[in-house]
Structures are given as structure tokens and as C-alpha cells.
Input
Amino acid sequence: MRRVSERLHGRDKLSAFLKDQIKDLETERRHLVGVFGRTGAGKSSLINAIINKEGLLPSASVSACTSVMIKVEATNGSKYEAHIEFITKEDWENEVQSLKQALEDHDDDDDGGGNDDCLDHDGKLSALYGEEWKEKSTLSLMDNKYFRDIPEFLKPKIKILESDSAEGLSEEFVRYTRSESNETEEVKRWYWPLVKCVTVKVPDNDFLDHVTLVDLPGNGDRNKSRNEMWRQIVGDCSTVWIVAEITLAASENEAWEILKSAHGLIGNGGQCEQIHFICTKSDPSDNR
Output
């Protein structure tokens, strides 16, 4: 292919196309490993253990910690980095309008019963605005003062955080990835509703040299957008890890749903080549 490329001296579109394709063949490919499982199965803890960075990704035993897609890969630099990609301001304005309208419609039709969708809408708006969103119009909520700390969202461009340690980086990007925190310091504004994806780059990690791990919000999450997120990427994964608690691994509906979807992609138009079923939380179990 290199010899062919050297003979392509023309400046026509075909020559340029062939050169680009040959150059692409020389690019080292990363294996995309999707880490899927229900909320609370231990996906983030598993990734931390595998790359030997216990404090990198947030984890908890009570509620969902991961609210956005997190990719974990290697970096050639010496620092830990988080590259935060935002949705556009126009998309957020449309979403705010939609969320407020849905909540207003629910109030008009309220029969006194609970509604998980409304709790999700309320939580998403409150994460960024506190209680202010209830008294203000959509236009007012798009004022730049709410995004003063994240000018990258307004441009838009990728925001890059750096730290000398995994724990330090985790403290920096927590407000961009989680809907709540166990941290002692008060976080007044959470930015995860504005985040499309966070790519965490880890230095000096041989395992990640050829692999990108993708940690997603769990399926089975009551938040519908987080619940469906895994479906959007499973077809791009060369390897799928299905994570389930060891006590319920054989009976989890969410785990079987992922298995069926991933299995259908092997040799059927998808990238999936391998599926691994990983049982977590074996320490407190009697099944040792």
C-alpha cells in the first residue's frame, strides 16, 4: 500500500481519496470495549480495578453515579486529563423548553400519583439551576450567567481538565458526570445535563494502549434517556462486557437484554466480535 501511495502523484479527487484510505490503514486501531449493565452493578468500580486506578471513576452502592457516557483511554502525556464535550446551546434551549412543558402538562393533569419522568425532568433542571427554573422563562434560563464557569459550552469547544493524580481529576470532573455526590464540599451547580461525553485519559497504563473502555449509565435506570444510552453505542463495540451482580447474574432481565442485542450484532453488520459476562460483588456473596 505504501508503494501504491507513492505512485499517486495526481491531484484529482480519486488520488486524494486513495491516499487518505491508505493512510487510514496505517492508523493503529483501538478496540472499543463497552461496559454495560444495570444501574449499581459495579461497572465503574470494575474499570477502576482493571486499570488499577481506584479513585478515577465515581462509584456508590446506593444510587446511580454515572449520568453521562465516559470513555477511558491512554494518553502519551504525564497528566490525567478529562476532555468534556458539550451539547450545543441551541439543543439545551430546546430541551429546557421541552422539560418545562412536560412538567406544566403534568401539573395540569396531576391525579396525585408519582411520576418518574417528572422527577427526572425536575432533577435535570434543578441540577443546573437549583429552584430558579420554576419561576423563570426558557429565554431567561439561557442567560450566559448560568454558564459563566463553562465558557467552552458557549463557543462551543471541548473543555480540558488536568491533574497529577486520578483522585484529583475525579474531584475536578465530578460535576460533569454525576447527578449527585458524596463529597463534603458543596457543589452549587452541576453541569452533567449539558455534557455529551467525557473522555478520561490515563498516563502510563499498558492495558489502555490499544483499548478504549466505555462506561455508560446503567440500563434499567429509571431515567429513560440514561436507560437507552447503551443501545446507541453497542453496535460500535468490538467487545462487550456485560456486568451483573453475582447473586442475580442468571436472572437479571437487563443483563439478558444486553446479551441478546450484542449477540445479534456478531457477524450481522455490527463490530462486535466478543461478549464477556462478568460477575461483580462476589466478596459479600456466599458463592465463593
